[in-house]
Amino acid sequence: MKLFWKLFCAMVTVTVLGCSVCAFLLVETEFRSALEREVTALGQENDLLRYAVSLRLESAAFPGREQLADLTRGMELSAAGGAVVFRISDEAGRELARTGTLPVEAAELLERLGPETRGWELRETEQGRWLHGACPMETPEGIVFLENGRPVEELFRLRESRYRTFHRMIPALAGAAALAAALVSALMVRPLGHLADATRRMAEGELGQRVPVDGDDEIAWLSRDFNTMAERLEEQMNRLRSEARRQEDFVASFTHELKTPMTSIIGYAELLRARPEDRERVQEWAGYIFREGRRLEALSRKLLELIVLEKRDLALRRVAMEEFLARVAGAMAPELEKAGLTLRLETRPGEALLDPDLMEAVCLNLLDNARKASFPGGEVRLSGAPEGRDYRVEVEDHGRGIPPEELERVMEPFYMVEKSRSRSQGGSGLGLALCQRVVELHGGKLELESVPGQGTLARFRLKGGEPA
Amino acid sequence: MKAWRKALLPCLTVLALLAAAALPPALSRAGDSRRMGVIHTEQVDTAGPEAGSLSLSRRLRLLARWKAGDRTVSAITQTLTDADMGENFRVQVERSFSQLAEAVPALAFFRELTMEGVTAVSALLRDPETGENARMLRLTWRGDPSAEVTLDGETGLVLSLQGICGKEYVVEFGSQEAFFDQMLRYLGLEGTLDTKSSHCMVEEGTICRFHTPAAKERYCLFEPVGYRTEEGDIVVEGADDVVWTLK
Questions:
Q1: B49 and A166 in contact by Cβ < 8 A?
Q2: Rounded to the nearest 5 degrees, what angle is found at the Cα of A74, between the Cα atoms of A71 and A77?
Q3: Are the CB atoms for B219 and B163 separated by under 8 Å?
Q4: In chain A, which residues have their Cβ closer than 8 Å to the Cβ of B62?
Q5: How far apart are CA A377 and CA B71, in angstroms?
Q6: Inter-chain residue contact A138 with B46, CB threshold 8 Å
Q7: Closest to B75 (Cβ–Cβ): which among A17, A19, A78?
Q8: Which residue in B has a C-alpha nearest to residue A177's C-alpha?
């Protein structure tokens, strides 16, 4: 059964039962109050009757039991509701005097009364329900009982009338309750339906599903949390997809980078085996095999470094950057000069927290990339300066530059802008990936700005850049 | 099994609706059958209730309420027989009228009324607020003269009167103020007079109406007709409106 119907049935049941209980309590309370008033009036009338009879007995010449009929003849007891009938009986229940007809037998009540006890009872008679009261009274000839009665059938009729009205109201009440319950149930279930639909679609793979959030109740909180969960799930899935794609690219690139030198090595080895007598060519072929072997070695070393970096905890120390960058520049200057390039060093004093070996590798990699991208006669700039609490390092060349669409991917492992040129220059496609990882381990980020044909600027910041 | 479970809640709902309609009267009837025939008893003083100690103004008020048909005032009335109206009774009534004639000379003709043709009704009234009783005697003469007088059963004082005196009597009622003063002095009460409406208010907010005839009239009246309620309203029998304001 749907939740809507469960709520609907529950609300209709509770509402109608609640109204029924209230109606019962109201009608019954009103009835009991009226009955209590009648019982009180019965007692008061009995008191008054007793007083009247006692006065008559006092003033009578012969105040005997047998004279009671004469003494009370013409006596009328009037109260709310009109005339009241009464009867005077002796201890045996024999009637001594009466006005009107009391339609209730005395015996049962009188049996329970003692000389100092009065009582009342509710009796059902042929004339309807009656309250019947009796009280003992002393006379010179012993105890007599004064009985009086009040018809209370009207109270019962009034109560039945109230219940008939209630029965006439029940269909309208149930109808109104059903309408209200349907409305409330629909309002409550609608957001849950949205959630169920969205969940089902998400299970089918539509991770972009969101539900509307209305109000500030528990269901709204649930909807909001569902949306948050869906957003995070979608982000996570996107990240996983991107990661998987990178992994695939990595494997493909790695395979390709392995295959290329291996093809050369196998090819030249075949030539060596086939034509060992050609001494000149043997040297040349062996040289190719050696270079490709070195490239494979460099590739495996860098891969190893990359893997090691993932698991390594760096021991950073405070280093004076001016001296550090001067040492890096000194190490790279011959290579640059050999390529016909000028190295310009612009540094300002400052300190940074770093692992000198790893950071030197980063700077050398960036300078080497600048060398590869530059045209002969060009200039490569290595600069360093404090920037706030950091120390900024920049490597700039005025070479080929990187197309904007490839700028984002150049830091991926094995990605090369111009593959053949890079390989011919000994590139493995892992340099920038390595640099980025090292800078990240130092708490910084490697940024690249490049304009094709004008050059590239590589920049990163290191923590602890206060002046020494 | 599954279908049965699906139908369970609608069935329970229908049952609940039927129960909501049927249970209240059934419960009430069950309560009735428990109440019916059950005898409730309590201790009572067999010596019987004592005469009430209501003040005279309170008795006037009770009389006014009874005459006005107040359903909360219980009363026992009994028409007295000739045997009840013996010599003793006659003496007591004559004494009451003598006291009245001495206090209010204009009402001296009441002293001449005999017990012949009189209807006497004894009344026992119960004050619903205090539960105390008051005895009264109402005497009615039809003919010439015709009169109706209510005597207090405890003191014998005339609490209300109206009558037309016989032609043989020469009655000098005097001013309204004088009649009012004499009546209140006779009853031992204090009050304020409103001559315009011919009403007065005595102690405890009881309203009395009186009428003093002009020169050739023979009708006179003094009777309690209303009272001030706890809410401050004044209920007057026979006034144009039930609630009447004393000027």
A1: no
A2: 100
A3: yes
A4: none
A5: 129
A6: yes
A7: A78
A8: B17
Pairing relation of β-strands A447-451 and A379-387? unpaired
Cross-chain Cβ contact B21/A31 below 8 Å: no
- pLDDT value for B244: 45
Q: Which residue of chain B comes nearest to A140, CA vs CA?
A: B47
The residue written with tokens 């950057």 in the block is A321
CA distance A448 to A404: 10
- CB-CB: which of B40, B81, B126 is closest to A48? B126
Two tokens, residue B30: 């069950």
Contacts with A59 from chain B: Cβ below 8 Å: 84
- Domains within chain A, CATH numbers bracketed: 3-159 (3.30.450.20), 210-312 (1.10.287.130), 313-463 (3.30.565.10)
- Is the model more confident about A303 or about A381? A381
| Complex ipTM over 0.90 | no
User: Which of B9, B20, B124 is nearest residue A48 as measured by Cβ atoms?
Assistant: B124
Alpha-helical (H) ranges within B45-175 are 56-67, 87-103
Q: Which of B6, B42, B75 sits opposite A118 (nearest CB)?
A: B42
Q: What is the CA radius of gyration of chain B?
A: 28
Q: What is the pLDDT, as a whole number, of residue A80? A: 58
If we measure between CA atoms, which residue out of B206, B171, B172 comes closest to residue B187? B206
Mean pLDDT of B115-129: 86
Other C-beta atoms closer than 10 Å to the C-beta of A316 total 19
Residue A466, pLDDT score? 55
> pLDDT confidence of A382, banded at 50, 70, 90?
very high
Q: At what angle do helices A431-441 and A356-373 cross, to 10 degrees?
A: 140
